[in-house]
Amino acid sequence: MTHATATANMMHPPVPAEPGAGVYSNKLGMWVFLASDVMFFTALIGSYIILRFGMTEPWAAPGAVLNVPLTGINTFLLICSSVSMVKAYAAIADGKKYFLRPLPGKLMRDGGLKFWLLITIICGAAFVGVQVYEYIKLVEHGFTPAGYREGSLLAEHALADPVKYGAATGAMYGSTFFTMTGFHGFHVTCGVVSMLYLYFTKVLPEKYSAQDYRGIEVVGLYWHFVDLVWIILFTIVYLI
Amino acid sequence: MTTTAHVRPNYILIWVYLFVLTVVEVGAAFFSGIPKHWLILILVVLAVWKALLVALYFMHLKFEGWRLRLIFLVPLPLAFILVVTTMMEKP
If exposure means fewest CB atoms within 10 Å of the residue's CB, which of A103, A202, A213, B33 is most exposed? Predict the structure, then answer.
């Protein structure tokens, strides 16, 4: 009997803890990396806060330049991917390596690791796709990392309403926006690539089991952190 | 994502919380008419609340030992110091 079936609805560590920090080394390494990534994103977000609130000239109003409804949907996608990731983790902790299985007496099917990780990959890839689409549209309308492009639609709007569009701070807005969201998008892309790698090399060949699923836990920690950072970025960049 | 065995959280309920909080955030930002400085405070509180839900329940930080919690918590005061000292710097 596996430890997963022995105690229903309980979560267990994938492998026994190692002496020292009390966890296995891969997980400790990921947590140390995440701690360093906290500082990295703090530097970016902190710079944005200092630049924005240190300016005497107004910043563009929320929603004036950026497509908030579209990004709201994208935020929801990333939150969904975080849930599917944790469901993938719970599935393999219960020893469910399969894709979908019928539930006795129910119309719904029970999702296993293969199903939930695939959902996570699809949601993550969709998030990156929507972000690329957003970038293309912004640049088309004249919002670039260097600010409002001369002669563009947004530059005309900024001339007509310099307060709403933050005409004087457009260059600072453009550079901070693309730097922060760009680095976050890079993190999401790295997460999707990592999950794809695990999917084809470990998940499909069923190399994970209820006794050892370290890779899923470690990549899951990274993925949830990326979601956490986006929650903060969405508020600071799009809503405030 | 945990060091010791514990009861599994209700992940779908956390997802519902996150969804509702996101809707409240967008609603407050665009449809509430709350004064700007109060709005900023409310939005930051909502964002921190959502981030805590992810860290505590999806990353299972709530069920981890104190050493791992410490690894995650140590950069936060450092981050705060970094931002505040830079803001206080005279031009």
Answer: B33
* Whole-number Å distance between alpha carbons of B42 and A67: 21
Cβ of residue A239 closer than 8 Å to a chain B Cβ? yes
Other beta carbons within 10 angstroms of residue B39's beta carbon come to 17
Residue of B nearest to A26 (CA): B1
Nearest Cα to A120, choosing from A70, A166, A86?
A: A86
pLDDT in tens, A64-94: 999 999 999 999 999 999 999 999 999 999 9
Smallest CA–CA distance, residue A20 to chain B, in Å, is 10
Q: pLDDT, tens digit, for every residue of A203-236?
A: 999 999 999 999 999 999 999 999 999 999 999 9
3-class SS of residue A211: coil
Alpha carbons A144 and A95: distance in angstroms, whole number: 48
Q: What is the ipTM of this complex?
A: 0.90
Does any CB of chain B come closer than 8 Å to the CB of residue A73? no
The answer to whether residues A134 and A44 touch, using CB atoms and an 8 Å cutoff, is: no
Determine the distance in angstroms separating the CA of A229 from the nearest CA of chain B, rounded to an integer.
8
CB atoms under 10 Å from CB of A187, counted, come to 19
CB contact at 8 A, B61 and A23: no
Which residues in chain B are contacts of A120 at CB distance < 8 A? none
